[in-house]
Amino acid sequence: xxxxxxxxxxxxxxxxxxxxxxxxxxxxxxxxxxxxxxxxxxxxxxxxxxxxxxxxxxxxxxxxxxxxxxxxxxxxxxxxxxxxxxxxxxxxxxxxxxxxxxxxxxxxxxxxxxxxxxxxxxxxxxxxxxxxxxxxxxxxxxxxxxxxxxxxxxxxxxxxxxxxxxxxxxxxxxxxxxxxxxxxxxxxxxxxxxxxxxxxxxxxxxxxxxxxxxxxxxxxxxxxxxxxxxxxxxxxxxxxxxxxxxxxxxxxxxxxxxxxxxxxxxxxxxxxxxxxxxx
Length: 279
Prior knowledge:
The chain is built from eight helices and five strands; from the N terminus they run E-E-E-H-H-H-H-H-E-E-H-H-H. It is mainly alpha-helical. The chain has one domain. The chain has a three-stranded mixed sheet, with no helix packed on it. A two-stranded antiparallel ribbon has the order 2-3. Strand 2 (14-18) and strand 3 (21-24) form a beta hairpin. Helix 5 (122-146) packs antiparallel against helix 6. The longest helix has 26 residues, at 52-77. The radius of gyration is 20 Å and the shape is globular. The N and C termini lie far apart (70 Å). 37% of the residues are buried. Pathway: Protein modification; lipoprotein biosynthesis (diacylglyceryl transfer). The chain crosses the membrane at residues 25-46, 58-78, 98-115, 122-140, 179-196, 203-223, 243-262. A 1,2-diacyl-sn-glycero-3-phospho-(1'-sn-glycerol) binds at residue 141. GO terms for molecular function: phosphatidylglycerol-prolipoprotein diacylglyceryl transferase activity.
């Protein structure tokens, strides 16, 4: 017999509504990630000789890169046939459908543009941004939990969640995979922030980014074994889409860590580029 007798999860995704305006937990937690992240990033930038203005600019790049990348990632990775036939549906973000792998690509491209336009060392930028991205990722997965989405397989573990709002009859206890990911990414945030706070500019370029990418997508690869399929075509796949999309990112992360190990290089203070690169 289960000690906890399972956890009944029947949270309303909507916090409140005023007329046509609806405030949902997912949107609140998504936005909270940017708000808290901006404060933490400001502390990091100021401690290393940059300004709050730099953080304001990079936040704009981050928001655009995250939203556009996550939405395009969902439409192109998971349901390309539908969205390419109905392109106007791509714009309906409020109906749901954001992919973390797409967000990763969008963020990487947006920060490359930021680094190029604002004359920053790209790896220095990535090493610091992953700290707040980890925190944002933890909050987004909590949003998924509030939506009772991205659920796990049925299980009898004592911490299983019964997702009442799925409408199953009878209700089936399942792995709370959203919570697994949220807790793991929050732990990653703690580790990355601790490393930065202890060593700051003495950290080799690429170390934090390499740790983040390798750890995040390795855990994502593993936890996918506990998840229900996100789209029907995954039922016939040995590995699901989330796992296939994670593999190249894991390889990139490991390659960066090996590069850092073999050729450790410190960034210039404040992520400045060498004089020859500013021309």
